[in-house]
Amino acid sequence: MARTAQQVAKTLQEIYIQSFGEADHEKYLLNWADLRGIAGVEKLTEDFVTEISEKMSEAEFTLFPLNDSLLVGTEFDFISERKLPARLLERYLPGEDDEDKDIFEDEELED
């Protein structure tokens, strides 16, 4: 029996709190077939995945669709990731001399 986006989102949140892989309350990956199984459908539409993602967001969870899998987590799971420094961001912002500037020059990026 097919589940609603709300039911799927709730299920993904319940899985998040389970202990597996020697951790609990941690981000996790699942593949597209797993999500189809949880949803009880043979095919996932882009609209349905978007709706699941929106329901996850309402509960302060995140669903990141990737090519071969999906990542489930909370914002807290990602706040320790490296942040883009302002000096590097400035290098990639559009400017008046964009046509003359090659931002993909063969130079090593600095930290």
Task: Please describe what this structure looks like.
The protein has 111 residues and is α+β, with helices and mostly antiparallel strands. It contains five helices and three strands; from the N terminus they run H-E-H-H-E-E-H-H. The protein has helices spanning 5-17, 32-39, 46-58, 75-78, 86-92; strands at 28-31, 61-65, 69-74. A three-stranded antiparallel sheet has the order 1-3-2. Strand 2 and strand 3 form a beta hairpin. Helix 1 (5-17) packs across helix 3 (46-58). The radius of gyration is 19 Å and the shape is elongated. The N and C termini lie far apart (51 Å). The model has no long low-confidence stretch (mean pLDDT 89).
- As a percent range, the share of strand residues is 5-15%
The end-to-end distance, rounded to whole angstroms, is 51 Å
Q: Average pLDDT across residues?
A: 89
| Gross geometry | elongated
Structural class category: alpha+beta
Poorly predicted segments: none
Strand order of the largest sheet: 1-3-2
Order of helices and strands: HEHHEEHH
**Biggest sheet architecture:** 3 strands, antiparallel
- Report the radius of gyration as a whole number of Å: 19 Å
What is the tally of beta strands?
Answer: 3
Helical segment count: 5
- The amount of helix comes to 40-55%
